[in-house]
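Lecture 7 notes: from sequence to structure.
We start with the chain below.
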Amino acid sequence: MRELCRLRILISPLVLAQLLLLLFNSIATIKAWDQWSYNQYQNVDDYHSPSVAASFLAVQISIYPTEENIYEGRDATFNCRARASDGITYPEVRWTRYDAPMPTSAYEIDGRLKFSSARSSDSGRYVCSATFGGRNYDAYAQLNVQPCKFQCE
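Predicted structure tokens for the same chain:
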């Protein structure tokens, strides 16, 4: 019975030391993560200020619809929104036409690209872009404007 008690006394300090070491390592890891999170939110403003911490965030751009098929003289709208992976930052988006100037029938408002009385020459690929943390992000939409064979109403 005495040998069993000695064994418990010898094992207990070893187990206790390992538990303390594990606890201290866990606390250090949590503190490092908290410090990174704190710096991340301190260095990034509510909208879209590039910073070193922002480079850890990715941006997802969503476009709806991604393709629009209309007849000449009709209106079309593409919606675009960018969101950083932190879930609270929404970078500003801008629309351009891929490899061509923007047509006169198109205009931008609040992330939307609108076409009023579109012409077949407006057909093409359009790019929604956002810049965040020194990186550029793009997504694409396709507009197909069909000429009217008869009078369009």
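Points to note: The two ends are 100 Å apart (CA to CA). The domain at 58-146 is CATH 2.60.40.10 (Immunoglobulin-like).
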